[in-house]
Amino acid sequence: MTELATPPRPQRREFRNINAFTDLTTYRLPPAGLVSILHRVSGALMFLLLPFVIWMFDTSVSSEYSYARFKAAFNSGLGFVPGWFLKLVALALIWAYLHHFIAGLRHLWMDVSHAAVSKEFGHSSAIATLAISILLTLVLGAKLFGLY
What we know:
Blueprint (H helix, E strand, L loop, with lengths): L1 H4 L25 H18 L1 H12 L2 H13 L6 H30 L6 H26 L4
Helix pairs in contact: 2-5, 2-6, 3-4, 4-5, 5-6
């Protein structure tokens, strides 16, 4: 008699590991997962571009001549590398730093505040992290490419 009174339960979702060859095209990663992966990517990118950062710093502060050579490299190129490519590499470095910094602040806030460890805060802070890092990258990229 009680079986007729209670409605049947809906089928529960089955959580399983994803297959890199078949599931990656249909898998929807939540924003917090995307920010986590991009945090790792930005850290690796900053590490790999460290020689470029050291070169930029060295040539920009050594002397007036080296600073003029530094500006010329970004305007007309350096050897066989065109100037726009150097600007794209610098833009990738700008994004990596901004995203890594903002995502790091997000992680620090979640470590400090117990109220920040929730699904809602994780979702909203991940979207804010993505939006702020992309917006600041666009602003600094416009300055880098001479739009203002």
